[in-house]
Specification:
single chain; mainly alpha
């Protein structure tokens, strides 16, 4: 059985469906862009950067966090299609098709990841006017963005698989995923927060993805953030764990069960 064909077909289906819904294309990119512009305008005059961020205005500080928000929103919302596919009967057709279950999981996750990357790259291009970026920095940022998007899409797959309604999914988004982004250091530096909140931020895997993005885009090590190597290792492990969880929850048990 060719594993590539079902992965390619399902990933392509996610892309085609997304671009046919123009409101999703506009909304997924415009909402974070508006947040970045409005927050940047509102907090630039009042933002007092810690020593590690001296000389930086809030728009520059919030730029990596906006990229992560785009990746989060797009990757997570793309997995709502799992709920829609179940209601329409498409998911049942895929599950009984003679393809490896792992190919279905990989195709759905890859499709959501590509959607997140397309929009993340468009916003990253704005960084050329905000931060000094060399081709090497841009390319490295793309790699980290892919790992973040892949992890978040797999996490969205795990959540959506057990959901029966989009309303329930939105509820999880509001009480779990959005705070996950807010407590990654996207909106405010971890310096000066209460001790318990600092531990929450340290245990948040998205904090390490954001830390990696900051240090790559700023081109330097930032005091108070986990190192680049540690951040990449944690995000890599998070990607592995979420994919394993997605495969397990969808019914894939061992490679021996795959056709």
């Amino acid at each position: 059985m060719n594993h590539f064909l079902p992965i390619y077909t399902l990933a392509k289906r996610e892309l085609v469906r997304f671009f046919r819904q123009r409101n999703r294309v506009v909304g997924a990119l415009m909402q974070p862009l508006i947040f970045w512009i409005l927050f940047g305008a509102a907090f630039t005059t009042t933002f007092v950067p810690p020593a590690a961020y001296q000389g930086m205005n809030y728009r520059e500080y919030f730029f990596p966090g906006t990229i992560v928000m785009i990746l989060l929103f797009t990757a997570i919302f793309s997995t709502i299609s799992i709920i829609e596919d179940r209601k329409e009967g498409f998911l049942q057709s895929v599950l009984v098709a003679p393809i490896p279950r792992l190919s279905m999981v990989a195709g759905k996750i890859l499709g959501g990841t590509l959607l997140a990357m397309i929009q993340g790259v468009l916003f990253l291009l704005l960084g050329l006017f905000v931060l000094p970026m060399t081709p090497a920095i841009f390319a490295t940022a793309l790699v980290v963005m892919f790992v973040i998007a892949f992890s978040l899409t797999a996490l969205g797959f795990v959540i959506a698989w057990r959901m029966d309604s989009t309303q329930g999914f939105h509820a999880i988004m509001s009480v779990f995923l959005l705070p996950m982004w807010m407590l990654s250091g996207s909106l405010f530096p971890p310096d000066g927060v209460p001790a318990w909140l600092g531990w929450v931020m340290k245990l948040n895997p998205l904090s390490y993805g954001l830390a990696a993005m900051r240090q790559i885009l700023y081109g330097r090590t930032i005091e108070g953030l986990p190192g680049l190597t540690l951040s990449l290792v944690v995000m890599g492990l998070f990607a592995v764990v979420t994919v394993i969880a997605a495969a397990a929850i969808s019914g894939t048990r061992t490679t021996g069960d795959l056709h």
